Amino acid sequence: MDLAIFLIQCLNSLQYGLLLFLVASGLTLIFGIMGVINLAHGSFYMIGAYMAYALAPAVTATLGGGFFATLGVGLVLSVILGYVLEWAFYSYLYEREHLQQVLMTYGLILVFEELRSLIVGDDVHGVKAPDILAGTLPLGDMMTYPVYRLFISGVCLALALGMYLVFTRTRLGMMIRAGSTNREMVQSLGIDIKFLYRVVFAAGVAIAVLAGMVASPVSSVYPGMGSQVLIICFVVVVIGGIGSIRGALLAALLIGVVDTFGKVLLPQAAGVLVYVLMALILLWKPDGLFKAG
Amino acid sequence: MSQTDVLLRCQELTRRWGGLVAVDRMSLELRRGTIHAVIGTNGAGKSTLINMLSGEIPPSSGTVELMGQEVTAWSQPRRAQAGLGRSYQRTTIYPPFTVLENCRLAAQARTPKPWRWWESAQQCRDSMGAARLSAERAGLNDVLDRPAGLLSHGQKRQLEIAMCLATDPQVLLLDEPLAGMGAEETERMLELLAQLRPGHAILLVEHDMDAVFRVADQITVMVNGAMIASDTPQAVRHSPEVQAAYLGGH
Amino acid sequence: MNSHDRGKFIFVALAMALLALYPLMGGKFGVDLVTKIMIYAIFALSLELLVGGTGLVCFGQAAFFGIGAYATVLLSPEYDAAPLWWLLPACVLVAAAYALVVGALSLRTKGVYFIMVTLAFAQMAYYVVHDTPLGGGTDGIYLNVKPSGGDWLNLDDPLVLYFFTFAALVGVFAFLAVLSRSRFGRALAGIRVNEQRMRATGFATYPYKLAAFTVSGGLAGLAGFLFAVKDGFVNPELLSWHLSGAVLIMIILGGIGHLRGALMGAFVFVLLQELFKSEAIFGAFAKHWHLGLGLTIILSVAWLPRGLVQVPERLGWRLMGAPSRRAQTQEGTP
Fold first, then answer.
1. Is the ipTM of this complex over 0.85?
2. In this structure, is residue A276 part of a structural domain?
3. CA distance B14 to chain C (A)
């Protein structure tokens, strides 16, 4: 493998890993802070991708904007969706046992899949990247790299940085971290824990939806994408350590590398490598790489 | 007393968590026919000490000997099989099962017979017999068929002891058995301990000072993980170090 | 037997009697469907031993099911009937062997991590079958000739296969019922309720869990064997995590901690699928059957958090006029 190809695969690993991190961070937050196993998290990613496809013509017609305007509209819609979902459905899951949460969110996956099927259909679609990002950058003498993929990495990094700043520098972040370790104490301090949970959940949904939207030009839009990303995200969360954002980042990047290079070097074993990685890590560190934090 | 009477011994037992020393070079002996109490303020390291003696956490250094054998590397189940029983500060029972089944399952550890899958456990004479015996000793004869989760707090603590006795251990590690008990129940428990004394070596971690001074043959005082005194109750009561560090401040 | 246990026994006996008599009223489609459901019921029972009996939530049960199915095809001669008396135990053992390996490694972890490690090992098996020539790839492989049980047991006859499957179901159910009452079964229950106390009294809990895991894998392999014999065809989807998820859903739906819960869960889950897929009832909307299924699952958990086992219990109390029993003591009983 020559240097240019190696570099391309590194960039691909980075992009895939960061995207996974984005979706997985929502999952680990919701489980780490609210103690809810949410199988439907992959569906939000799928909803994001289908939104990018379905909203584009409407947004262009009414607002006159293109890709970025669609992103903005999708973001607003997803926050509303997350807020309503938490209020109408997820808030009832906090008190329930994990297996009941599994069952109920599994039912939700089925509902989401069919609603999508009814509203948008089951076809596979492509989404065009916006023109200003549609070009390529030269890499060495003969290779080029798509600008859009760099954009994806950039967006994910920016969001990751944003999350870090919110968690460590803002009062909201402090409340969230406190709420994850001691719910009653936070409540007795007069902080509205219900509102806090709703905000966290809406944020988790919005991040997953945004990830789906941003990824859609690269991954295309197809019905099975929700379950596909869900299972990998669970692997990320578990390898990284439940509730740990740091862990999710490291694990996502690790998986990005293993998966990308695996597909190139060992195409026959590509699908299984991620699971071998997880098994090895868990047998070495049965609680994941990091503790919550 | 002869060496063979020492059923459990630990030497220089230490446990560190990062920079913090939770238990600092504790050495003590449990002799057959004695009740050895360990007292100390909260955070003095008593629970950590018991956990190391029972095998639930490994020591950072030091050794544990059970009936002359070095068991420092032995797992908890292995030590239990060798005759070490313990009760927990936080009630550790099987709430969905009846009181009798709680004791029976505990006793089953002695006669596990897992291969006879066609035999009903309820018909197991060995575990049933041992269960009824230990339940009776703990004073639970009236509530044998009640689900353990529905017992009163005091009865749950009695069950905690009964389960500890079900395997007929020679060494008993009791972690605050009197916690949350009323006067009558405390009396009953102290009587039980007095009955158990001959033939057993008992380590008693307790906060109830009156009870400790009544029933203990030897008292070890722990402060910040280390032993500051270990003597007869009279000597400990009058020791200036103990009064300064523990009894006096209250 | 107290009245509660008697009620459970009557329910199960009734259900088995109904199953035994069903071929008299059911047509060809019905017999085929109920055979499939009984196979899933065995599959669900195997998982219930782990989840309800031992407290181990395994998210990779389909691997043992699929391995049992693939073993059936791979161990059968290409154009001849394999002897049933040899093939069936062999497939069960192959599945149990993989379960032994997976269990030995996975049981080092706990909780959610255990769930994910079992998934990982199932995915590994899935990809071996999916991507390598060993399993015939995504196309799957055909079982050309069903195993033969001699002249009197012709598994090509759907009715014979039905009763063979029924016998297997009764056998597995009875075996697990007896097992749950045995010392081994009680030890598993103790591990589920309070592993700490089990260890404190002297039980080495790891071998018990490993034994349960292995037996569970073997039983799932039995279900897989029956599936392969019935359909005559196996493909990688039999090892997919979707199937592992579905069987977990079945036992949660039916009610964890009860063998009859696994039975009910399998029946209701498959029947609900058939119901919502039925064009006769839903017309053109039938292709969106996931919606009805999803909503039903959500509602059933909301109203019956302990699972479907609550339904006959409550009905039975109304019928027999017995006072409501709140604190049930025997866990893991039929």
1. yes
2. no
3. 22
